Amino acid sequence: MIENRTATDHFTGFRNNAKMPEIPEGDYERGKKVFKQRCLQCHVVDSKATKTGPTLYGIIGRKSGSVPGFDYSTANKNKGVVWTRETLFEYLLNPKKYIPGTKMVFAGLKKADERADLIKYIEEECKKPIS
Fold first, then answer.
1. Where along the chain do its domains lie?
2. What does UniProt say on post-translational modification here (predicted)?
């Protein structure tokens, strides 16, 4: 069941009256496919290694621009967002709109189900120990 929540400005921490998007539960297997097709070229989720993009291992609960040793854009470092299901869901719709000035060239995922599936996959992979 998806609940309606009011949004929190993840930069200031203050609540506002905007409604958070309703996020479908997501499907691991479909998310795995989305990750392989759209993310794997630049990111990993099963190690702390970086590629063109930073590792996504442990992203839930991590502050944007904070993977040690990765050369983030100033915009990404300064955004100050803490990655949650909700912030990732919004970010993945249009990364350049969410963080103007980001180096990420990914155009985003317009379909809510694809974003939810991808988040589900990343969440589950992050629960596994790094090999």
1. 24-126
2. Binds 1 heme group per subunit.
Model confidence pLDDT, tens digit, residues 52-94: 999 999 999 999 999 999 999 999 999 999 999 999 999 999 9
- CATH superfamily for 24-126 is Cytochrome c-like domain (1.10.760.10)
Q: Using CB atoms within 10 A of its CB, is residue 88 exposed (0-12), middle (13-18) or buried (19+)?
A: buried
Question: What's the DSSP call for residue 21?
Answer: P
Q: What are phi and psi of 7, to 5 degrees?
A: -75, 150
* Strands 6-8, 15-19: pairing kind: antiparallel
Which pLDDT tens digit goes with each residue over 95-127?
A: 999 999 999 999 999 999 999 999 999 999 999
With b meaning 16 or more CB within 10 Å and e meaning fewer, what string describes 57-79? bebbebebbebeeeebeeebeeb
Cβ(98)–Cβ(85) below 8 Å: no
